[in-house]
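thread: overnight batch results

M.L. [08:02]
morning all. the overnight job finished for the chain we discussed friday. pasting input first so we're all looking at the same thing
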Amino acid sequence: MKILIINGSGHKGNTWKLVEQANGYLKKLNGEIEFEEIHLIKENLPFCIGCSNCFRVGHEKCPHYSIVGKIIQKMENADGMIFASTTYNMRETALLKNLFDHLCFMLHRPHFFRSKALVITTTGGVGGSSSAKSISSTLKGIGFNRCYLFSRAAFSWNAYEPDGRTLMALNKKVSKFYKDVNSGKLHSPDVSLL
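M.L. [08:03]
and the structure it wrote out:
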């Protein structure tokens, strides 16, 4: 099983601590899982310029295809994906939103029908669940079969230590995600993107 982790945060802070916990639990469930990480901050993906090449002539003609094409290929090869993002103003980070902007042609031609995702967000205050729902709605829009959401308030400046209740809830969510990915089951499409 291959799990791709897309880190939409600019560094490995509070959200990443939950991702590490999720990875550890996945390894307990299946010691043969292969993890691959994409840290969007390191990809240097330029902002989408709205040229419409992806719509009109094909996404291979995107001026940033040398970067975004590799990310799409890794997404296609993954059995399951984890999307991590700090919450900024009740939404995902600009790094993750920029990737989604590059994938928005798939809102018209959904692509990832077999894909399942675990969305992990943290916030310093409120809006974490709104951020997770925003990410999930984009993923569903580009075809994702199922998204599992996990959000927590982490009231600290990168000194967050998840408590026992948080870890139990995270493990429960990770277990559902793993069982679903492992089963290969395809769920009926959901007309709602929220």
